[in-house]
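Action item from last week, closing it out:
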Amino acid sequence: MQKNDLEQIMQKLKGTRTEEIISQMKNLYSEIEEKQDVWYKKSGFSCLQGCGECCRNFEPDLLDCEADYMAAWLLENQAETAEKAGQAIFPFPENKGCPFWNENTEYHCTIYGGRPFICRFFGASGARNKDGKLAFKPCKFYPAEKLAAHKPPLAHRQYSAEEMTDIFDILPPVMTDIMEKALSLNPDNHSTKMLREILPSSINHLKWILSMTDKD
């Protein structure tokens, strides 16, 4: 089990705008986890253990706030990896997708506690369609035979909020609603950059802030 606490680094960042952003990101990630736990328990629908297919050739693009959280998590929990990533040296540079995705482990993600929004939402979230209505579609990698075995049977199609309520008696967390909260953390910059591009600069910026605030 990977560590997920940020106690030491948050203490060193105390009183800074970066500490405020990372703290709010931690709250948003906790909100996702809590809502997904309820969704999993009531719906009986969750990703297959050890799948990871959605990450195989996928490199996430990050908001500044996501990159800040990932940088803080790495510095707190995987200092050596953070040091190398600050130099744009990643554990699995040969990957076409995420450079933190490990083919040879059961759970694949090597920075699970620091992963960004999209990775947390995969397989367990709804979204709003062009009309603003909530919809849910099972992950395309979820085996059709397992969907068919669900009670009641499911298929690879989009389900409306009404259908989800009838089938599951619960609605999944909504990606777009939670992302709106994240966008408010950097109101002047809603653009994203690919992980390989943004993370090194975020790590180095955070290290600079820490060097200015280090009380040890």
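Closing note: The chain is about 45% helix and 5% strand.
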